[in-house]
Amino acid sequence: MIISENSPFRKLPLLDRKTSLFLDGIRYSIEMADLAYSRLYSVLCKKTFTVLNQESSSTEDQIKTHIDHYEHVSIFLDAWSVIDSVHRLRELLLFAPFIKGGEGFDTFKQYTEKITLLRNTIQHLRGKIDTMVKHKFPIVGVLTWLYVPDPDKKIGYSCTLLAGTIFKDLKMSCLNPSSSNRKLMIPLDLITLNANEYSICLSDVMLHIEQITGIMEQQLKNQFKNLPNAGSDIFLCLHFKWD
Fold it and tell me: What share of the chain is helix, strand, coil (3-state, %, to 5)?
């Protein structure tokens, strides 16, 4: 969980309404991206483990497949939800009147610039169909990830999930583990969404979100440390009956 229970984002004081809305929007964008990525990570771990451990007489190097259509819908739903939530976060950070940029913020804005372009391809899907036909793109993209269940064995699996119908001249891309210059997280990492001409590593995006969240939380603590908490996220349930 990127935003903890004790985060200053959950303990905002009474502020002017515009500032409060920006901060609430920033928090929910972070938490929506975090939740979607966590679900995506969990499902991909489970799916990959199931495929690799299914009973089969196939040889070790044979390509294995596992079809579960609703599971695939869930995977792409959460992958695109991460993109949409990060795009929303980026927009809020760009236009929040109290954010002046600086180290961390400028890096995040620059890194996530391509996310807006990717997000627009799915938001305006009807207008992209002809381009998809021309360049042989699948409808909502291709997801790739790296799975290393036991690093001591020095064996990993590069996995690919294609959305939609298999068609002529289809090109299936696989993830190259050397494409990352950071230490890999075990057992699963480098979850990457490829759609149209764009490719976004969601795992790297979430690391950037963790970094920018920590910077903002420290700033909020310093500014709000002597102010009373206004409270947030109220749930109300009214009891009623009828004849």
Answer: 50, 10, 35
Predicted TM-score (pTM) of the model is: 0.89
For the beta carbon of residue 195, count every other beta carbon within 10 angstroms: 25
Q: Is a pLDDT exceeding 60 seen at residue 56?
A: no
Q: What's the pLDDT score for residue 64?
A: 54
Distances, alpha carbon 65 to alpha carbons 21, 163, 175, in Å:
46, 14, 16
Position 92 in a domain: yes
* Owning domain of residue 212: 12-136+201-224
Contact 116, 53 (CB under 8 A): no
Q: Hey, which bits of the chain come out as E strands? A: 142-150, 155-162, 188-195, 198-201
Give the span between the Cα atoms of 65 and 51, in whole angstroms: 7
- Say if 80 falls within a structural domain: yes
Would you tell me the crossing angle of helices 69-95 and 202-224 to the nearest 10 degrees?
40
Look up residue 176 and give its amino acid: N
How many folded domains does the chain comprise?
1
In a domain, 67, yes or no: yes
User: Is residue 173 in some structural domain?
Assistant: no
The mean pLDDT value for 139-145 works out to 90
